[in-house]
Amino acid sequence: MWLFRDNLNYYERIRRSLYETLRDTLDRELIKIALLNSFEQHVKNGVEYNFVEKAELRPKSKKIETESKYNNSFLVIFSEGVINKSLKNYIRFFPENSITKKNLSDLKEFTLFKRFHQNMRYFETPIFFGLLEELLKVDYAILIQPDPSIKKRNRYSLTHYHVKIDWPIADAAEDLAKHLKYIQNNLYERGEKIGRDLQHKLFEYYACHHNVSGRRTAGLIAAQLLNKLDTITTVYVSSSESRAVYKYWERGITKFFLIKIDDHQIESIAAANKFPLEKFIKSFLYTAKGFYYAVAQANYIHTEYALPPTEPTGKIRSFNHAYRWLKLREELIYPKREDLFQRPLPFNWIYT
Fold first, then answer.
1. What is the dihedral of CA 217, 220, 225, 228, to 10 degrees?
2. Cβ pair 142, 132 in contact under 8 A
3. Based on the number of CB atoms within 10 Å of its own CB, is 182 exposed (0-12), middle (13-18) or buried (19 or more)?
4. Where are the domains of the chain?
5. How far apart are CA 34 and CA 131, in angstroms?
6. In Å, what is the CA distance from 304 to each residue of 200, 205, 301?
7. pLDDT digits 0-9 by tens, 129-175
8. Nearest to 206, CA basis, from 191, 193, 190, 217
């Protein structure tokens, strides 16, 4: 389990501060790649963009949408510390898929190959996000962590591509259920039905329905596995079906998505936040043919049924599949990329 800042030494606190600053930058870039660039690709190819519906953002939503080849998908793991070798059986990354010129020569569609040099991998270099975006176009999953070859330095690097998540869903559900004190030894100790229900609850815990697959399943499994580390991690998942960026981090779950916004909503949000209308449009809204759209953010937290008991006892908790494990905490309109001085503004949309 990751440690709170108060439990860190001075060196570790400096690392935590650096990690959080870099993560803020990574948020912005992945939102651009997954959402803004995907929208532009739809427009460029004359295909209507399918905006996320309210029902899809409600916990336990079962709604399934059609995938689009113009949506950019990815799985990015950003770790505060070097991932422990003990997890390599489940998060598979090895020398043969490390970011080196020799290994990248196998990627036929990797356009930066001729210009690639090792320093491009480091977060502080200007070309870092260009390298990241090119790799996301041709690969399944990316790992960003401190460079393990440099001791006593917090230099974050793209260390591996083609990372595979190979931990069974049943094992992940068992791990979570033990943490929450719903079982003591194994997933099926209380019967096969509760064992299946706990696997469904694993998906609900990570804001997915149990019928999702692919990157979203891999992402939530990775998030559960990385909870074993004593450093924080962030898992980003973009799915062409969901049209959203899932962010699994120490404060809960966040989804970023695009929202089509009409004149009434514009006036309502601006008025509620005492924001001049013209300034709101300039600072928060992107223009398309005949309408405005914006980046929105939904933050979720776990209910009491998805948190460990407040009083540590040896007793196993009663389990009821009907109790919700996740709830919406807040909704925000995200400022445009070029406006660095605006704060996100609260708004209510998902349940209206």
1. 180
2. yes
3. buried
4. 5-93+163-346
5. 15
6. 17, 12, 10
7. 999 998 998 877 999 999 877 765 689 999 999 999 999 999 999 99
8. 217
